[in-house]
Amino acid sequence: MPSEKGTNPAKHERASSIQGYGIELNDEKLSRIDRMVESYEKRVAARLDEEYEVHTRRSDRVADKVAAFGGSWAFIIIFACFLALWILINVLAFLGLQFDPKPFILLNLILSFIAAFQAPIIMMSQNRQAARDKHESIIDFAINYKAEQEIDDMQKHLHRMEAELAEMKEMLKEGK
After folding, report:
1. Alpha helices (runs of H) in 2-104, residue ranges in sequence order
2. Residue 158 lies in a domain
3. Residue 154, number of CB atoms within 10 A of its CB
4. Which of 32, 117, 121, 141 is deepest in the core (most CB within 10 A)?
């Protein structure tokens, strides 16, 4: 079996066909379809983002940004550094900056305060994201339903054409 190493991929385009229809699709046609789908998805996403900007209040957008930052690696790293620095300053006596001795009561108060405010903000953001996801799924359903209707219409046309071709074949056979 010859190896395809070193062969020119342009000469040996991978061709596939749409099952049941015999329509050949080479790499160029497949990439064109991919670009069209990607373009359509970008337009839908842009429209959803535009609706989001119009229909959400400023406080909601701030909550979304706080939730996004609170769930990021940047937050985890910054907060870990803050905690390490707080503990080091208050444990090492030679610095002379101790303001929260060892049970770290002030640190616990700050952590409780952050958790008390961050949790509801994250929940509000998740609720809005769930509503947005539901809206997107409704749009996806509508698109899929429309596509299914168009496919059904195409199949009806194909069946009609097949019937007409069968009639024409019969007429040709009778005419001989």
Report:
1. 27-55, 58-70, 73-91
2. no
3. 11
4. 121
